[in-house]
Amino acid sequence: MRIECIAIGSELLSTGRLDTNSVWITERLGRLGLSIHRKTAIGDDPEDLRTLFREAIHRSELVICTGGLGPTFDDLTKETWAEVFGAELVEDAQIREDILAFYAARERVPPESNFKQALVPVGASILRNPFGTAPAICWDSPRGYPGRRIILLPGVPLEMKQIWEGQVEALLAPHAKAAVHSLRMVVGSVPESALDERTRPMREQHGDLEWTILAGVSHVELVARGADLARLDAARKDFEQELGQDLVCVGEGSIESTVLGLLQARGETLGVAESVTGGFISTKLVSVPGASRALLGDAITYSAGAKTQLAGVPEELLLVHGTVSDATTRAMAEGIRAHLGATWGLATTGNAGPSEDGRGPGPVGTIHIALAGPDGTYSIRYSFPGFRSDIQSRAAAWALDFLRRRLI
Amino acid sequence: MRIECIAIGSELLSTGRLDTNSVWITERLGRLGLSIHRKTAIGDDPEDLRTLFREAIHRSELVICTGGLGPTFDDLTKETWAEVFGAELVEDAQIREDILAFYAARERVPPESNFKQALVPVGASILRNPFGTAPAICWDSPRGYPGRRIILLPGVPLEMKQIWEGQVEALLAPHAKAAVHSLRMVVGSVPESALDERTRPMREQHGDLEWTILAGVSHVELVARGADLARLDAARKDFEQELGQDLVCVGEGSIESTVLGLLQARGETLGVAESVTGGFISTKLVSVPGASRALLGDAITYSAGAKTQLAGVPEELLLVHGTVSDATTRAMAEGIRAHLGATWGLATTGNAGPSEDGRGPGPVGTIHIALAGPDGTYSIRYSFPGFRSDIQSRAAAWALDFLRRRLI
Question: Which phi and psi (to 5°) does residue B58 adopt?
Fold first, then answer.
């Protein structure tokens, strides 16, 4: 079944909003073994809507729209589909009652414009909305398009999700297919192009699977899709051998969840001292529930004084080596480890640019990472391209991966 | 000029990724008075790409594509457009040299696959990529489509933005129109529905402007658009009066940049101690260049030990009041202020849920915020709905806004 998603609303073409509904819908379709082949965001212009709807019903068997079902003048989804199919709109008594009840429960009277939401195209069915006044619509085999289906959902995520779970899922169940399984492998501290080159022969060996490489700031993902679990499992084994230590985890998970899992399994703890990464290491770790079991604390030492006060770096050392240096980073890692009594101390310094006066400690992109542990202190230096937040986020990920490699 | 954006990559149709490039491009087009009428996300399937490209060049005068220019087998944007226009791809000597230089600077040799990026369709021009190996492409009046233009940009946001600012903007300048101006007002610590209700009469008074309310986790934005600067200015004055202290800033800016600006103007400094927000306050602040002038340091105290070690909370107090409490939060704020010698000490504790055993300190969503300053210590308690990361991010923003209200 060819499925496409359309998100409707001029705000989706402005700078403020992203269509997140389609991401949620994609995930739910995936559970039924269904996938979408295209998604579109479009404004409230009637002519643009008409053109898109005609294209969509032509190329897709199921068209799922979100948005444009509200009470205001620029909510045109239902009206435009009715026009495309030459169908009349008729008020539904049940929906009128629902709207009245919704307002009565809030001790208010609905504005007359709200009853626009009680209009339903002849031939379409209603999916009632337990959380709002805009009902959803399911329209099977509209005039001229036998076997096609359109589903119109409210744009408010909460309402959309409720209607999907309570009603849409049951409508789609008969179309559910043997799910396509996927194998996701997270790779740390390796650039995308190097990973592509290195894994090409093995991906060709497993050419019966569909492969994707996703490059992020923190890590690279290698994803395989296929219907046969045994074939995916064989690929997993080959890649585990090929990637070795560079493979962070398979399945859900990330560098941070892997590091926390390893620490917990070993009964070990972590203290962090961040300068250039300014809290990025910590926020990555605390995004994982239960992080507090291994992460004792993190000293974000933006000033030289804080490096001394919170991470115990001797003032003389700062004077001799400067705030961005291998020696200072190592002293921070050792200091925070001792200060918190942690098994491991992880630290970063560097220059993520830009300072307002164009000056700064060392070239922009320089990153020092140090790790103090039971068997001594290790450090490494990188040079990352990019803007401030990319450099900070990548440095945090590569620092955590530096710890992960030491833990395995 | 009819403009559309196309984001290419199967990951954009999965659950992992959102197309954020088009939002940035929309904002930049807006500065030139240009807007898009549609955006589409599509996978790497060659047949789907061919169909979409043919539709797009038919309906739009300018088609801006992002993604699919990388070195891997599933990067097909350039190849598919060349096929649509029946153009040959030829290797460009300059780009081959750029790729060699890019790798040489990193003391590496490019994999042979990288030179796929040096192929350019005959008739198209190159926009060189200072941060990566995939050049962008501008193709004017391709065969069969006189007066039309396509611009192909890398999907990596950093590279896309650099090429846009350095080269694309100049190409589009001749098409710039009288810009529609916008007035953006950032409101802190007020829920969206309350702001909607409260500002409705004044928005109706200024009904000649186009109004939008954008609710985020950190703040709510009230945006007005119009061609007449004097009308926008009149609205700004009325809303400044109406919103009072709740108005964080007008124009660019955020709670964090406003707080840092106020601190710098007053020559004051800040120390932070975060528990429940786990680094979110710090990463918000350090996203602003120059943050180090006011932010001395941040102690992320996930464990009770770190609350004592890094933020100087007496052990007895923790035993009596618990880690999530008003008293502990106040002690953290006072402790970090004294420890770093800062003008202000800001602290958070709370429970963002879920702990793996379903238990936790206090109900999920409970947040304590405390601020210690020259004239004493103030604290407040909130209860936020939502999931873990929303609660953490909102708590960080409302804590910074608590400080902002004290500074004005």
Answer: -75, -40
Q: Which of B73, B156, B212 sits opposite A11 (nearest CB)?
A: B212
Distance from CA of B205 to the nearest CA of A (A): 18
**Inter-chain touch B356–A289, beta carbons under 8 Å:** yes
Judged by a CB distance cut-off of 8 A, whether residue B309 touches chain A is: yes
Check whether residue B47 and residue B77 sit in a common domain: yes
- Residue-by-residue DSSP string for B367-397: EEEEEEETTEEEEEEEE--S-HHHHHHHHHH
Select the residue of A11, A297, A353 nearest B300 (Cβ to Cβ). A297
The verdict on A59 touching B (C-beta cutoff 8 Å) is yes
**B180 within a domain of the structure (yes/no):** no
- What is the total count of domains within chain A? 3
A46 with A161, same domain: the answer is yes
CATH number of residue A70's parent domain = 3.40.980.10
The four Cα atoms B171, B176, B180, B186 give a dihedral, to 10 degrees, of 20
- Say which amino acid occupies A388: R
* Distance (Å) from the alpha carbon of A90 to chain B's nearest alpha carbon: 30
At position A283, the amino acid (one-letter code) is T
pLDDT, tens digit, 9 for 90 and up, residues B342-389? 999 999 999 887 753 444 566 888 999 999 999 999 999 998 877 788
Contact B282 A285 (CB under 8 A): no
- Which pair of tokens denotes residue A378? 């290790």
Q: Are residues A242 and A281 in the same domain?
A: no
CB contact under 8 A, A196 and B113: yes
A292, A303, A390 ranked by CB distance to B292: nearest: A303
A183 and chain B: CB distance < 8 Å anywhere? no
- In a domain? residue B273: yes
Pairing mode of beta strands A247-250, A344-350 = unpaired
Domain ends where: A201, A226, A250?
A250
- At B157, which amino acid appears? P
Q: Are residues A27 and A149 in the same domain?
A: yes
For residue A377, the domain's CATH number is: 3.90.950.20
Q: Kindly state whether residue B181 falls inside one of the protein's structural domains.
A: no
- Full domain range(s) for residue B94: 3-175
CATH of the domain at B216: 3.30.70
Contact A289 B17 (CB under 8 A): no
Q: What's the gap in Å between the CA of A128 and the closest CA on chain B?
A: 23
Q: Strand pairing partners for B273?
A: B299, B347
Q: Using CA atoms, how far apart are residues A94 and A103, in angstroms rounded to an integer?
A: 15
Record: contact B296-A305, CB cut-off 8 A: yes
Cβ burial of B399 (10 Å; 0-12, 13-18, 19+) is buried
Show which of B212, B231, B250 is a domain's final residue. Answer: B250
- Do A136 and A205 reside in the same domain of the chain? no
Q: What predicted TM-score, i.e. pTM, was given to this entire model?
A: 0.74
Tens-place pLDDT, residues A332-383: 999 999 999 999 999 999 988 775 344 456 688 899 999 999 999 999 999 8
Do residue B400 and residue B259 come from a single domain?
Answer: yes
Which ipTM score applies to this complex?
0.72
B197 touches chain A (CB under 8 A): no
